[in-house]
Amino acid sequence: MGIEELRVGGSVKLRGPIKAGRIDVGGSLHVDGDLEVEALKIGGAASVTGNLRAAEVVVGGSIKAKAIKVDVIKVGGEAEAEKIVAREVVVGKKSRVRGEINACKVTVEKDAEVDKVVGYEVVLRRGSEANRVEAYKVVVEEDAEVRELVYVESAEVDEEADVKKVSRVESVNLELKCA
Fold it and tell me: For the chain, does the N or the C end have fewer beta carbons within 10 angstroms?
């Protein structure tokens, strides 16, 4: 099915695979199967039982998908997927991402939470939390918490940060080519 533009104010259920240009979700969207979209903006809730592929995703509410492959994703609410593969990921202030993030550039803003990040450049802002971070270059600001930090090139860790375990390795398992 091909959709040029879809605005969801109430509740919509679709059977995939779906190809769309732009989708704005103010209410709730459920896609049974895969969703491929240019731009997806979520103010409410969206769930995709299959894989989500997009150029840009902006989450103000919540998104749940099996896997998310996107150029840029900005999470200002909650995102859940087994794996999010992107060029750039911004986890906004007080937001949460469940699952693994695999990206060239990852910024985890103030008081945000992530499970696992594998990236080229990763910045954890004040008060953010991560279970595991694997990166070529990483910055951990004051009051950030990281259970396990693995890096290749550089790790700038503020003395007021709480990093339980740090180790340096030869490389990390990054799915993308980042320059």
Answer: C
Print burial letters for 151-173: b (CB count within 10 Å at least 16), e (below 16): bbeebebeeebebeeeeeeeebe
What letters, b where the CB count within 10 A reaches 16 and e where it falls short, cover 35-64? bbbbebbbbbbbbbebbbbbebbbbbbbbb
Q: For the whole prediction, is pTM greater than 0.85? A: yes
Alpha carbon 52 to its chain's center: 12
Question: In terms of C-beta density within 10 A (0-12 exposed, 13-18 middle, 19 or more buried), how is residue 13 classed?
Answer: exposed
Tokens linked to 90: 């911004």
Count of C-beta atoms within a 10 Å radius of residue 82: 12
Query: pLDDT tens digit string along 114-132?
Result: 999 999 999 999 999 999 9
